[in-house]
Every structure is written in C-alpha cells, then in structure tokens.
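Dear colleagues,

For the upcoming journal club I promised to circulate an example of a predicted protein-ligand complex. I picked one with ribose-5-phosphate because it came up in last month's discussion. The inputs are reproduced below in full, followed by the predicted structure.
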Amino acid sequence: MSLTIIDGGANTPLAEAIAGTLAAPLSRRIIGRFPDGEAQIQLIDPVADDDVVIIQPTGLPPDAHLIELLLLADAARRGGAARVTAVIPYFGYARQDHDGGRPIAAALAARLIESAGVEAVITLDLHSRVVESSFRVPVRNVSAVQLLAERLRPLLPDDAVIVAPDLGAVKLAERYAGALELPVAFVRKERVTGAAVEAHGITGDVRGRVPVIVDDMISTGGTIVAAARACIGAGARADVFVSATHGLLVGDASARLQELPLRALFVTDSIVAPQAVPQRLERVTVAGLLACEIADVRSARSLPSERAPSRTEEESYVSRQS
Ligand code: R5P
C-alpha cells in the first residue's frame, strides 16, 4: 500500500521533515477559506487505495486546525484511501476533561476525528489519558521525554532535582527522573484563572538544588513561573531548567519566562513557534520519532489498542539517533 502524507497546514516544517525522513513527498492539497471564513479543502493528488497519513497538530488555533484535520480525513476517506491515520503531535482540547457543567472536550474531539474516517491516531505526550480512552480506534501516544532528557543530561549538575509544577505532571516528572536518575519534587498548584496560577508549597527536597521543571506543555507560562518562584522561595538555586513537550507560548508567555533565572528551556517542534520566544529556548525535533512511529504502524499493519509509550521503545529510538 503506497504511503501518502498530507500536511494539514498547522505545522508544515514538521510535516516536511517527517516526509523527508520517510522519503515520501507531501501530497498536494489546497487548504483555503471561503469568503465567509469556512475552511475549504481539496486533495489534488489521488489517494485511492493509499495508506494516508495526515499530519496536523490541533492547536494555535485549535478550532481551525481541528476542522481542517476533519475535512482532510473526510476527503481522503471519500477519495478511497485504504486507511487514514492522523498524526496529531499536539492534541488540542485535551485539557477540559472534567464534567460538572463543563464538556469532556477530549471525548468529543475523539468522536469527531473518528467520525471523519480516521482509523488510527499517533500523538505525543497527551495531556491526559482521557484522550486515549475516548478513542475507539487505536492510539499510539509516543513520548518526547527521552529525547528531551538526553538534551538535559549533559547540562545538569549532580544535585539537580526534577520538579513537577503540579500534581498532574508527577508521572511525567517520574519518567524524567528515571531517565536522568534524579529525585522528584512537586509543587502544590492552584489555577486561579486561565492565565493565573498560585503555588502553595512544595513536597520534596529542593533546598540548595538546581530545579528542572518539567511539564507536558507551556501555554501562558503561568505554571512554570509559579513553580520556579516556589522552588527558589523554598531554597532552590536560582538557576532554573525547564523542559516541556509542547511550547505553545501564548500571549506574553515569552516575556514571563524571560523574567526567570533560566539556564535552559527545551520544547519540541510539535507545534509551530510563535514569533517571540524566550532567550535560551531550544527546540528539539520530534520528526524522527514520529516518522519512526509511522513506519512502525505501517509495518505492524494493525495497532494494539490502549498502547502506552514504552521507555524501551524511546530508548531504542534515541540510540538509533546517536
Ligand atoms: C496543566 O495541567 C498542564 O499540564 C500545564 O501545566 C498547563 O496547561 C500550562 O499552562 P500555563 O502555561 O498557561 O500555566
């Protein structure tokens, strides 16, 4: 089955890099707008009987990029694609995963993606397992932790401590800690508004240590800034490392982060960079990781469901790169 890769338009540099790694040209398509603002999609190259892979992070802005993904998948299915896989490096609408007057947005997004004809999903460091469990089609949630940890490793002193900026990030922090053989602390965070968070103390020993704050994403930067200040307030060294898979960096996030005593800030290229980024920010590409996963899906031909990322797999990818 021929591989057809379609760039959904939300992260063309990443789509090009993945296609380059897989030695497959990007399929031609038109993504435009009708005069009223409605998304207008057209596949130019035929996709009949092809194994179609659409690369589209659904963020910045989430609504438009989600709709484009849905329309592209529908067009591919109607064009006779043998299978449609969505590679969603950043999965938008993953954070509203509670009820009580609020939608379970991840479940709705999953239903929409499936109903557009997507039969498999590859994504990266999902915010919540609610996303995975909302899909009936197989989901591969790969992780950039090992890649990011390898970039941190040569920079960190022996007395560094991995810091989860909230309870939700503890599992992720434990994975960094395992990779880097460092202890873990976590911040007790309260979100006051969408952009404002408060830290109410730290569990774990950060005194005299270099804090390495890790999270799945940086949006407004409020969580990282509050965590860094809490660490320094608790006696950590004013020498802060930050690592997050998704660098959304919305609004004045860059300016807020710039005020921290940052030694290094790592994010991946899961989402297109905003114009202004903080000094000391470095993007680590996940193109190879995702290309590897696409190739694996193609060779496996069928995906096991509920498949959690395995460290062995990440390590084998990293060792292949080094
Ligand atoms: C929250 O649970 C997430 O893991 C991130 O901590 C949060 O989305 C980051 O948002 P912000 O940068 O706006 O604080």
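Two points we might discuss: The first helix runs from residue 12 to 21. The domain at 145-284 is CATH 3.40.50.2020 (Rossmann fold).

See you all on Thursday,
B. R.
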